[in-house]
Design a protein that fits this description.
With about 475 residues, this protein is of the alpha/beta class. Among the domains are: about 85-240, Rossmann fold (3-Layer(aba) Sandwich); about 330-370, Helicase, Ruva Protein, domain 3; about 375-470, Orthogonal Bundle (Arc Repressor Mutant, subunit A), CATH 1.10.10. The chain has helices spanning about 15-30, 50-65, 85-100, 110-120, 135-145, 195-205, 220-230, 260-265, 270-275, 290-300, 315-325, 330-335, 345-355, 365-370, 380-385, 390-405, 410-425, 430-440, 450-455, 460-470; strands at about 5, 35-40, 100-105, 150-155, 160-165, 170-175, 185, 190, 210, 235-240, 240-245, 310. The strands form five sheets. It has a four-stranded antiparallel sheet with strand order 3-4-7-8. The chain has a two-stranded parallel ribbon with strand order 1-2. Strand 1 (about 5), helix 1 and strand 2 (about 35-40) form a beta-alpha-beta unit. Helix 9 crosses helix 11 and helix 16 (about 390-405) runs antiparallel to helix 20 (about 460-470). The chain binds glutamic acid.
Length: about 475
């Protein structure tokens, strides 16, 4: 059974990087008929917060990655929060200690810092090969009574190569001498990341560890622990970093980094899902718009790239526009609710019919369509087409008013026909149509005048033209 997991630390809102890692885990699991698991790595009590856990799990759900197992939905391999699993780790730490594969280290932080500094000064790798690595458990127990301060370290091998085959990075090899005796627990019942992750992945029967490439350097340590504990080795896949447009690691400097921020900016969950899938992967053909089902169907680890994936906001905008256009008006109205507080559903739908093809994100709506909710302030310079004089604008608007009043009861199609005929007579149609559209919308760019009249109604349109006339 293929089992993948995302193991976020709840120390911030759902980050795009975490969401992309989750997505690759999700797509791979679904493609292989496996299970996608959420495990919350909340052992850092000071920085972890329940509100972030909630944000992460809700964010994944919003994106369409419902978990098969996790702290909220449960499962057979729980609990799914590390803070609820503290008892799980202790026997494994004790096992390593009793087999002399791990040991108590009594160096103070100051001593370790000095050692590191000296090694660096003499241009050596800052590796800690601990003086306590060979003391017996009895000696260690005596020392523990005397000194309060200790950590537990893995007794590393000397002169050993640790190799593994990564699904993305292929054959990787590490030198144990460059790793040294690394720490695995702060206390007998307080494991550190590398230890906890190995125990959890084993117990939860995780078959594939798919995570960011910033974890590559942790993998040899985890492999050594897996071997020492006699665990089953998972398959690893380390995903390329997400880079900003300047090719540096994606950060706040590049703009929004959390899924929430993108949601608030009016990106649809489907477009973010699709966009993130292409951050470091492609379907092997030129398709860019792929539904969730198509992504699951086409996903394969072989097509995950090694090099950094550029987060191209213009592409996301384009893609979001495409997804907006694929929505039904009713769906779009629902999605637009947080951005446009409109009481009448019908009125909102009419406006959205106009704007669906124009917008790239829902957050553009309030600014784009405000004139449907309040009369624009008339501005004679805005009403001016090319080099029309004030008198000419005035006479255009008078004409517009006359025609509109005459055709009050007519269908919008007739009104359009009458206006276009009149505009045609003027040589340059803009002399009539520009003042009309700008008087109605108060904007340089908007939907066409007849579309606006059909939504505002003739009475409101007359009122706006009269306001415009008065401003000249
Ligand atoms: N808690 C780790 C993180 O958020 C998990 C790393 C892993 O997948 O092993 O980066």
């Amino acid at each position: 059974m293929i089992r993948t997991r995302i193991a976020p630390s709840p120390t911030g809102n759902l980050h795009i990087g975490t969401a992309r890692t989750a997505l690759f885990n999700y797509l791979f699991a679904k493609k292989m008929g496996g299970r996608f698991i959420v495990r919350i790595e909340d052992t850092d009590i000071e920085r972890s917060n329940k509100k972030f856990e909630k944000n992460i799990i809700e964010g994944l759900k919003w994106l369409g990655m419902g978990e098969d197992e996790g702290p909220l939905v449960g499962g057979d391999y729980g609990p799914y929060r590390q803070s609820e699993r503290t008892k799980t780790y202790k026997p494994y730490i004790e096992k390593l200690l009793s087999e002399s594969k791990a040991f108590y280290c009594f160096h103070s932080e100051k001593e370790l810092a000095e050692e590191k500094e000296n090694l660096m000064k003499s241009k050596k790798h800052p590796v800690h090969l601990c003086e306590y690595r060979n003391i017996s458990l009895e000696e260690a127990n005596i020392l523990r009574e005397a000194k309060n301060d200790y950590i537990i370290r893995f007794k590393n091998h000397v002169g050993r190569k640790i190799t593994f085959n990564d699904l993305v990075r292929k054959d990787l090899s590490f030198d144990s001498d460059l790793i040294g005796d690394f720490s695995i627990a702060k206390r007998i019942d307080v494991p550190l990341y590398n230890f906890a992750v190995v125990v959890d992945d084993e117990i939860m029967e995780i078959s594939h560890v798919i995570r960011g490439e910033d974890h590559i350097s942790n993998t040899p340590k985890q492999l050594l622990l897996i071997e020492a504990l006699g665990f089953k080795k998972p398959t690893y896949a380390h995903l390329p970093l997400i880079l900003g447009s300047d090719r540096s690691k994606l950060s706040k400097r590049h703009g929004a980094t959390s899924v929430d921020e993108y949601k608030d900016l009016g990106y649809l969950s489907e477009s973010l899902f699709n966009f993130m899938a292409l951050l470091g992967w492609n379907p092997g053909d030129d398709r860019e718009i792929l539904s969730k089902e198509e992504l699951i169907e086409s996903f394969s680890m072989e097509k995950v790239q090694k090099s950094g994936a550029i987060f191209d906001l213009n592409k996301l905008d384009w893609m979001n526009g495409e997804y907006i256009r694929r929505k039904s008006i009713a769906e779009l109205a629902k999605l637009s609710q947080p951005f446009l507080k409109v009481k009448s559903k019908k009125y909102l739908e009419k406006i959205l019919e106009l704007e669906q093809s124009r917008i790239k994100k829902l957050s553009e709506l309030p600014e784009k369509v405000d004139y449907f909710f309040k009369e624009p302030s008339a501005d004679k310079d805005l009403l001016r087409w090319k080099n029309m004089t004030d008198e000419e604008i005035k006479s255009s608007i008078k004409k517009l008013l006359e025609l509109l009043k005459e055709n009050k009861e007519q269908d919008i199609k007739i009104i359009e026909k009458v206006f276009l005929e009149e505009a045609g007579k003027m040589g340059d149609r803009g002399r009539l149509l520009w003042p009309l559209r700008s008087a109605l919308s108060g904007k340089k760019a908007s939907a066409g005048p007849f579309e606006i009249i059909s939504i505002l109604g003739v009475e409101q349109s007359i009122k706006r033209l009269e306001n415009a006339l008065q401003s000249i």
